[in-house]
Amino acid sequence: MTKLIAEIKKRNSFLVTAHIDPDGDSIGSQLAMASLLREMGKRVLVVNEQRPPRKYRFLAHADEIVTRIPDGFTYETAVILDAASLKRLGRVSEYVQGKFIINIDHHPTNLRFGDINWVVPRASSTSELVFRLVRRIGVKLGGERASHLYTGVLTDTGGFKFPNTTPDALRMASVLVKEGADPSYIATQVYLSKSIDELFLLSRLLATVEVHGGVATMQLTRGMMKDTKLNTEGFSDHVLQLRGIGMGVLFKELDGKVKVSLRSRGEIDVSELAKIFGGGGHESAAACLVAGRLSEVKRKVLTQAKKLYGRDYLGE
Amino acid sequence: MTKLIAEIKKRNSFLVTAHIDPDGDSIGSQLAMASLLREMGKRVLVVNEQRPPRKYRFLAHADEIVTRIPDGFTYETAVILDAASLKRLGRVSEYVQGKFIINIDHHPTNLRFGDINWVVPRASSTSELVFRLVRRIGVKLGGERASHLYTGVLTDTGGFKFPNTTPDALRMASVLVKEGADPSYIATQVYLSKSIDELFLLSRLLATVEVHGGVATMQLTRGMMKDTKLNTEGFSDHVLQLRGIGMGVLFKELDGKVKVSLRSRGEIDVSELAKIFGGGGHESAAACLVAGRLSEVKRKVLTQAKKLYGRDYLGE
Question: Which residues of B31-54 are buried (b: 16+ CB within 10 A; e: fewer)?
Answer without folding.
Answer: bbbbbbbeeeebebbbbbbeebbe
